[in-house]
Design brief:
The structure is a single chain. Helix content is about 50%, strand content about 10%. The model has no long low-confidence stretch (mean pLDDT about 90). The chain has a four-stranded mixed sheet with strand order 14-13-16-15. The structure holds zinc ion.
Length: about 600
C-alpha cells in the first residue's frame, strides 16, 4: 500500500473527485511521537491475542482477602484490590523481536488457527502442513508472571520446583505491584494451583538525589556497579552519553558528581538501601549517605583490627555462651549489645530493616567503637589477670556476635573479619551458615550497669567539654576535685576512677568539703567548674583569665541579644493575645531561663 502521508493526500483527492470533500481548516491536536525515533505514532487496527482476566483475578483477590498472601506495607492491599476488581482483558501479543513466541499457527489452506502446547506440525482444522506460527511474542509481563515456577523447571515436576514453590517472601517495588506481583499470583494460582509466595514486601522507588525518577534520557541513572567499584566523572558522563542522555542530563551529572564516585563497596550500598524506611515511596539515593556507610565499614574494620591485635597471643576465643563479667564497662557493653540485638530482631520480624540496621549501626559506632574500645585499653593494660581475662572474653564476644548480626546487611566485610576472629571449637566454616544471634535468649539486660555507666559517660563528657572550651592540650592531665551528695553516684565515681582518669586524661580528687566547690575561686586557682546531676566538680589551672573573659563576654552578648528579641515579642500585645497559649508560655519560660543565664554569666565575669 501507499505510505500513510501519501495515502492521506490520495484520499483527499478522491473525496474531491467524488464531490464529498467539505473543505479544510487548521486545528490544534496532540500528536503522539515515539520516544526513541521521534516518528509520529499512528493508531492501526490489527488482530491481537487477549487473556480473559476476570476468572484469573477472582482467586487472586481471594488469596489476599483471606490472608493467604500478606502485602506489606498493608495499605497497598487497597490498591491491589482496586486493580483486580476493575480488571480488563489483557492484550498479550507484542510486535517485538524478542520474547516467548505465541503458540498459535495459521493455515495456508483454511481459516483455522491452531493453538498448541507442543510445536504444531499440521493444521488442526484441515490437517494441511502449510502452517505458519504467529510472528508476535508475549508481553514481557506475561513471561515474567510465570517466573516463580518457569525458572524452576516447570512444566516438568523437578526437585527444585517441589522444594522452592511456593516461596515465602517476594520483595519488589510498589510500582510493579500490578504489572508483576498480581500477574505472578494469578498465574501461580492458575498453573500451579497454589499461591507463589505468602508475603509481598514493597519497597519505595529508588530515585536520584532530587527525588526524580531515574531515566537514561535524564542522565541520572546511578549504576550500582559504579557505586561499588568507583567511577570518575568522565566515565559517568561517557556512559550517560552512550545511553542517550540529553544535554541537561549531562549537565546534572557534571554538577552533581564532579568527582565521580569513590569505590564505596557493595556492603556500603546495601546498608544504605536498608537504611531507608519502607514507608517512604521514594528513596532519594544519596551518595553522601553511601559514603557514610563506607565510613562505617572502615570503622568496623579498624575496630576489628584493634580487637584482634589485642587478642593476639592470648588463648581467649569467642564462646557461644555470653561471658559473665564483673567490671562495669564489660557489663555495660554486653547489656547494650543485647539491647541492640533485641531491636534488630524485632525490626527484622516486622520487616523494618531500617530499624534493624540502624540499631546495629549505632551500637557499633556510638557505643562499641566510641566508648567500649577506649574503655578496654586501660583494662587490658591493668596487669590485673582477672580483669584482663574477662575484658578479652567480652571484647571477642561482642565483636563475634555483632558480626553475625550484621552479616545479612554487610555480607562481605563481616565474613572477611569473622574468618579471623578466634572462635569456639566446631564453629561453622562460614559466617553464612552460622546462627543469627538470638538477643535476650542468651543474656539479660543489665539495667544497673547501664545506669551506673551513664554517670561515667556524663562525667567524662563534662571533662572533655572543659578541655575543649579552655583549649587544654590532650597531653596535659587535668586535676578534678569532685563531690556528690548522692550515694550511688559517689560509689560509681569512686569505683570507676581509673576508667574516668584514662578516658578523660585527668586525675580525680574527692573533695570532702562541698562548700569549697560552691565557691571554687576562693580555694582553687583559675578553676573551671562543671555540674552533672548530683555531682559538682572544679578543675583548677585551666582558665586563662583573658580568654575566659572574652568567652564569657561573647556568651553574654549572645544571651542578651536573644533575650532582647524575646522580650520585645512578649511586650507586643498582639503577639500575646493572638499566638497560641503554648507558644506564649514557651516564650515566657525561655525568657526566664535566659535571665538566669545572664545572671550566671555576669557573676562569673565578676569573679574573674
Ligand atoms: Zn487448515
Amino acid at each position: 500500500g501507499l505510505d500513510r502521508f501519501e495515502a492521506r493526500k490520495a484520499v483527499e483527492i478522491e473525496l474531491g473527485n467524488r464531490g464529498l470533500a467539505r473543505g479544510s481548516k487548521k486545528h490544534m491536536m496532540t500528536l503522539p511521537r515515539s520516544q526513541r525515533s521521534g516518528t509520529i505514532v499512528e493508531p492501526m487496527i490489527s488482530t491481537q491475542w487477549f487473556v480473559q482476566m476476570k476468572p484469573l483475578a477472582a482467586p487472586a483477590i481471594q488469596a489476599v482477602e483471606d490472608g493467604t498472601i500478606q502485602i506489606l506495607p498493608p495499605e497497598w492491599s487497597k490498591t491491589y484490590f482496586h486493580w483486580l476488581r476493575n480488571i480488563q482483558d489483557w492484550c498479550i501479543s507484542r510486535q517485538l523481536w524478542w520474547g516467548h513466541p505465541i503458540p498459535a499457527w495459521y493455515c495456508e489452506g483454511c481459516e483455522h488457527v491452531t493453538v498448541s502446547r507442543e510445536d504444531a506440525t499440521a493444521c488442526g482444522g484441515c490437517g494441511g502442513t502449510s502452517i505458519r506460527q504467529d510472528d508476535d511474542v508475549l508481553d514481557t509481563w506475561f513471561s515474567s508472571g510465570l517466573w516463580p515456577f518457569s525458572t524452576l523447571g516447570w512444566p516438568e515436576k523437578t526437585v527444585a520446583l517441589e522444594r522452592f514453590y511456593p516461596t515465602q517472601d517476594m520483595e519488589t517495588g510498589y510500582d510493579i505491584l500490578f504489572f508483576w506481583v498480581a500477574r505472578m499470583i494469578m498465574m501461580g494460582l492458575h498453573f500451579m494451583g497454589e499461591v507463589p509466595f505468602t508475603r509481598v514486601l514493597l519497597a519505595g522507588l529508588v530515585t536520584d538525589e532530587r527525588g526524580e525518577k531515574m531515566s537514561k534520557v535524564k542522565g541520572n541513572v546511578v549504576d550500582p556497579l559504579d557505586v561499588i567499584y568507583g567511577a570518575t566523572n568522565e566515565q559517568l558522563v561517557e556512559k550517560a552519553e552512550k545511553a542517550g542522555a540529553k544535554k541537561s542530563g549531562i549537565k546534572y551529572l557534571k554538577t552533581t558528581y564532579p568527582d565521580g564516585f569513590a569505590a564505596y563497596g557493595a556492603d556500603a550500598l546495601r546498608m544504605t538501601l536498608l537504611s531507608y524506611s519502607p514507608q517512604s515511596r521514594r528513596i532519594a539515593l544519596s551518595i553522601k549517605r553511601i559514603e557514610g556507610y563506607r565510613n562505617f565499614a572502615n570503622k568496623l574494620w579498624n575496630a576489628s583490627r584493634y580487637a584482634l591485635m589485642r587478642l593476639d597471643g592470648s588463648s581467649t576465643k569467642a564462646a557461644q555462651q555470653c561471658p559473665q563479667p564483673t567490671a562495669l564497662a564489660n557489663r555495660w557493653v554486653l547489656s547494650r549489645l543485647y539491647q541492640a540485638l533485641e531491636v534488630a530482631a524485632t525490626g527484622l520480624d516486622a520487616y523494618r530493616l531500617d530499624e534493624a540496621s540502624g540499631a546495629l549501626y549505632h551500637f557499633v559506632w556510638d557505643e562499641f567503637c566510641d566508648w567500649y574500645l577506649e574503655l578496654s585499653k586501660p583494662a587490658l593494660d591493668s596487669g590485673d589477670a582477672a580483669l584482663i581475662e574477662e575484658t578479652e572474653q567480652t571484647l571477642v564476644h561482642v565483636l563475634e556476635t555483632v558480626l553475625r548480626a550484621l552479616h545479612p546487611m554487610m555480607p562481605h566485610i563481616t565474613e572477611e573479619i569473622w574468618q579471623r576472629v578466634p572462635k569456639w571449637d566446631e564453629a561453622p566454616k562460614s559466617i553464612m551458615v552460622s546462627r543469627f544471634p538470638t538477643g535476650l535468649v542468651d543474656a539479660k539486660l543489665d539495667r544497673a550497669a547501664e545506669r551506673d555507666f551513664e554517670v561515667v559517660q556524663a562525667f567524662v563528657g563534662s571533662v572533655r567539654t572543659i578541655r575543649a572550651e579552655h583549649d587544654v592540650p590532650r597531653s596535659r592531665s587535668m586535676r578534678i576535685h569532685w563531690h556528690s551528695h548522692d550515694e550511688d553516684k559517689h560509689r560509681v565515681l569512686d569505683a570507676e576512677r581509673r576508667t574516668i582518669e584514662a578516658l578523660g586524661r585527668c586525675e580525680l580528687c574527692f573533695e570532702a568539703d562541698p562548700a569549697k566547690l560552691d565557691d571554687p575561686n576562693a580555694h582553687f586557682k583559675n578553676a573551671a567548674v562543671f555540674v552533672n546531676p548530683a555531682i559538682r566538680a572544679a578543675v583548677p589551672d585551666v582558665i586563662d583569665t583573658e580568654k575566659e573573659r572574652d568567652r564569657l563576654q561573647r556568651n553574654l552578648k549572645k544571651v542578651e541579644k536573644e533575650l532582647g528579641v524575646l522580650e520585645k515579642k512578649l511586650a507586643n500585645p498582639s503577639f500575646v493575645e493572638r499566638a497560641p497559649e503554648a507558644v506564649v508560655d514557651k516564650s515566657r519560660r525561655d525568657s526566664l531561663e535566659l535571665r538566669d543565664k545572664r545572671e550566671r554569666l555576669e557573676a562569673a565575669l565578676n569573679s574573674l
